[in-house]
């Protein structure tokens, strides 16, 4: 689904997930908060689930990205990667 808006993150972009603990539903898993990953690809735009879960009708529509994380970075062990589908507002530029 394309609407002419440019994606904020290109495939290969290094990102960090926001580190927050909202008082409501969020699709950003706790184990992935504040973690570094790499964007694999944009997956299209969708209504932000955090707002929709509150029964609100003013859901912003955001780009969803497939983001790859090293399992070791998420859980301290594992030699594999984990891919999460994350809304754009969950991501920020990775600052070294």
UniProtKB/TrEMBL annotation:
InterPro entries: CN_hydtase_beta_dom_C (IPR024690), Elect_transpt_acc-like_dom_sf (IPR008990)
Positions of the UniProt region annotated as Disordered: 1-30
All copies of domain Nitrile hydratase beta subunit, residue ranges: 6-92
Transmembrane annotation, as ranges: none
Name of the protein described by the UniProt record: SH3-like domain-containing protein
Classification of source organism: Bacteria, Bacillati, Actinomycetota, Actinomycetes, Kitasatosporales
Keywords for this protein: Lyase
SUPFAM superfamilies referenced in this protein's UniProt entry, alphabetically: Electron transport accessory proteins
Pfam family, one: NHase_beta_C
GO molecular function: nitrile hydratase activity
Keyword Lyase: yes
EC number(s) recorded for this UniProt protein: 4.2.1.84
């Amino acid at each position: 689904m394309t609407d002419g808006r440019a994606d904020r993150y290109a495939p290969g972009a290094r990102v960090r997930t926001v580190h927050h603990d909202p008082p409501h539903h969020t699709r950003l898993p706790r184990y992935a908060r504040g973690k570094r990953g790499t964007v694999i690809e944009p997956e299209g735009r969708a209504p932000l689930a955090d707002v929709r879960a509150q029964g609100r009708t003013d859901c912003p529509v955001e780009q969803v990205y497939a983001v790859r994380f090293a399992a070791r970075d998420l859980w301290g062990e594992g030699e594999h990667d984990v891919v999460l589908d994350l809304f754009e507002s969950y991501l920020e530029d990775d600052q070294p």
